[in-house]
């Protein structure tokens, strides 16, 4: 195998810019088919993005012999079913985040992957973006000394623009999404903490539905104690008034702190009272660096950038925070 030929299950809005075009932009990768249950929309997507094939049946795409890798970009409720089918068909599989509705579902995918011919990777794509690679490097260099704690605040109004628009409000349907914007956005942040700090010793949290007509958690607070002694505190609120929005993560060490917005493009490093700033150009296709790394992994030229076992950790945290 010298090229990854992709098929996409779920060519909705999230694939229009964030991920879809990137499959034809990275080396040794091509997008040859897309699937959506609405045949007219699948055909329209294929025509607009110059994709050779389209399907309205996932099984037909999965069993297309020209396809050797499947990208699953449906709502999370369908991830497990399609991942198991694709792995059983011998295909490589790249699954959107959150990987599933809960940790138990993700564990079933992990079990199937152990005996599968194809490889499996999860789309915690911020790991491979330049800004977060820089943060990980700064931490490894010990710029701010031994880490003491990290704290994160994500406050948004009920009508925010952090998520890709969709034709239906499926993120507010717990049976499809797992439960509101926390379930959609927190995987990015929690996965980065796992990526930065490693294994977790203890998890605790609280959640409330204060102002949600859908009954999903719109206020979540949680703590993580990592095996290395780093303590993480996070709070998410999706009902703050206009003007009170906030997206900030601060990692504090013995010598200073690193501050950044998870959904931003700048890092601030403070050491001994001196500030240094690093700015990054917004990526047009935010998943392109991750897709490049996953393609190399599928071809046997790189390690897995995000395993299912790592994704299960963030799912397990969210399960506890929102229990």
TrEMBL record:
Q: Does the keyword S-adenosyl-L-methionine apply?
A: no
Q: Indicate the segments forming the Gfo/Idh/MocA-like oxidoreductase N-terminal domain, all copies.
A: 5-123
- What Gene3D superfamilies is this protein classified in? Dihydrodipicolinate Reductase, domain 2 (3.30.360.10), NAD(P)-binding Rossmann-like Domain (3.40.50.720)
Q: Which GO terms describe its molecular function?
A: nucleotide binding; oxidoreductase activity
A Pfam family matched in the record: GFO_IDH_MocA_C3
List residues of the GFO/IDH/MocA-like oxidoreductase domain: 132-258
Q: Does the keyword Oxidoreductase apply?
A: yes
Q: Which InterPro entries is this protein grouped with? A: Gfo/Idh/MocA-like_OxRdtase_N, Gfo/Idh/MocA_oxidrdct_glycsds, GFO_IDH_MocA-like_dom, NAD(P)-bd_dom_sf
Listed A to Z, the keywords are: Oxidoreductase
Q: Which domain of life is it from?
A: Bacteria
Q: Indicate what this protein is called per its UniProt record.
A: Putative dehydrogenase
Q: Which organism is it from?
A: Pedobacter duraquae
| Lineage, top ranks | Bacteria, Pseudomonadati, Bacteroidota, Sphingobacteriia, Sphingobacteriales
